[in-house]
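pasting for ref
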Amino acid sequence: MEIKKLEAMIEAILFTMGEAVEVERIASALDHDVDTIRKIIHNMMDRYEGDERGIKIIELDNSFQMCTKAQMYEAIVKIAHVPKKHILTDVLLESLSIIAYKQPITKQQIESIRGVKSDHAVNKLVEYNLVCEVGRMDAPGRPILFGTTEDFLRNFGIASLEDLPVVAPEKVADFKMEAEEEVQLQLDI
């Protein structure tokens, strides 16, 4: 099958699905190997970025999705309803970062790290579809394990969890020292 026809079929699949589609599913549907399909999609991504187009293809954790470019927002909101923006407070961001880096994780583990109840924060993150239930811990009570979603990756502009920034070791040491000083101050009071 020629490349142009494969590109057209990939484009049709991504457009029609409207959500991220695993590269394996695309390859299977087109009776081609995954590496070839991935290369074709990456070439398409480069062309979409280079052309004056309103859409692009993004990669999300071994899946691909067609979406509009951010620069097109002004034109889109004139015709569509303005999407509700979710506000991520410091509490939500703190909880989300704990989940992102420590997943899968239970509410109790989040609360242990934060030092305060986190029910509201986790529930809001689930409501915003940034976090979801990924399973149950094999422990008494079988607590829910939480992890991030594709929407998390999409909203933060990262392709996979491996792309999360790594905290420099010297920063970790600084944070640890600050925490120890804070604990010591509380003990002195």
